[in-house]
Amino acid sequence: MQNKQKKNAWIPSYAVFPLLSCVTVNCIVYFGIAKLAGEWKHYDLTLPFDRAVPLVPGFVSVYLGCYLFWIINYILIARQGEEHCIRFATADMMSRLVCCVFFLLLPTTNVRPVLEGEGIWVTLLQAVYNMDAPVNLFPSIHCLVSWFCFIGIRGRKSVPKAYRVFSCLFALLVCVSTQVTKQHYIVDVFGGIAIAEITYYIAFHTNIYRLSKKVFDRLYEMFFSRRKSACGKESEV
């Protein structure tokens, strides 16, 4: 087996397919189910707590800014070693399959408030409302992925403690943002965190990750071995 980690590589070779798989499964589940169940009956899980939470448009900066947080932390997590990377990717994909079940069996929606006033935050939040239909709410993928960004480096001494603390606080801040932008209910937050913790535990305390590893190893051999072979033939010419 070839060395799967180039020296000083930003994204190790072994992490390419696990990370791509996470993105692919997420997109298939989220956008696919939204398309499939678009005309189905949807349930509103709004609680008195949700009605009491104020609207704070400024938090859309956190709600949108978390995408950069996700990219940075998923790459950081992938760099923690091949086995850690594959176990994490397995947990991530498992979590989306669980979300898929909920999105199909319990389609959810909510009633968003009418935005008033002017300013960049109101404009951005309105843009989010226009682009992102109020579906696939329970569990919250925003909260789930943000919590994965934290637990993926939780206890990893190779990551500075200050950044681990920051990741925890920012993940919690993302959860708050889903509430005060009225994108999710409070049950969506707890659902997302719970699914992240459960699937992460399963992936890191069982051998289920080996199924993913076999697939990733095969893809690695097919892609990187062929590319290396092609490069070798070109050099001979």
Overall geometry comes to globular
- Uncertain runs are 230-237
Strand order of the largest sheet: 1-2
How far apart, in Å, are the first and last alpha carbons?
26 Å
Supply the number of helical segments: 9
What is the helix content?
55-70%
Radius of gyration: 20 Å
* SSE class: mainly alpha
pLDDT averaged over residues: 92
Number of strands: 2
Strand content: under 5%
* Sheet with the most strands, sense and barrel status: 2 strands, parallel
Give the ordered list of helices and strands: HEHHHEHHHHH
SSE arrangement:
Elements lengths: L12 H24 L6 E2 L3 H5 L7 H19 L3 H24 L2 E2 L10 H12 L9 H11 L9 H20 L5 H20 L3 H28 L1
What attributes characterize this protein structure?
mainly alpha; disordered C terminus; transmembrane helix; membrane
Structure, explained:
This protein has 237 residues and is mostly helical. Helices cover 69% and strands 2% of the residues. The chain is built from nine helices and two strands. Strands 1-2 form a two-stranded parallel sheet. Helix 3 (60-78) crosses helix 6 and helix 4 (82-105) crosses helix 9 (209-236).
